[in-house]
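Course assignment 3, question 2. Fill in each field.
Student: A.L.
Task: Predict the tertiary structure for the chain below.
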Amino acid sequence: MKKIRNKKRGNLNGRKGNRQSGFTFVETLAVLAVGALLSAGAGISASRVMEIARKTSARQTIEHYKAALQSYYLDCGCFPSTEQGLVSLWQRPELVPVPQNWSGPYLDKQVKSDPWGNDYVYVRKDSASFPADCPENLPYAIICYGQDGVAGGEKENEDIVSYK
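Answer field:
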């Protein structure tokens, strides 16, 4: 009995002839394009989450400073002057008026910068730079100017303040 041989041989993946199997250049580009789109979407989502985290951190830090200012007030009978600033919560003020009953530090760490690397702004009510939109019954304001570091702004540049 003679074996009948098939004239058209196929390789293992079903392609005919001696063609090499693998991805074509166009298929490779399509895979890379899809990967790039997915990476870009993940990057955009991550930047949004980071912005929310920065704003939340700034709000929590302002609340922490407000609590420390209340302790300062109970000991000293007044809030620090604008010139003395938030640093007076960490170390005894040297600028006039020097509080006699200061028993700090009122913070567990030194005053730090906001999440964007700018300083928090502390303004007492008797200062000329007291914010106009701050309610008159509040004795001070703590302000974080956001990403741009200047007053005003929207979205990521929005000011975060102690009175809102």
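Instructor remarks: The CA atoms of residues 44 and 72 lie 42 Å apart. The radius of gyration is 32 Å.
Grade: pending
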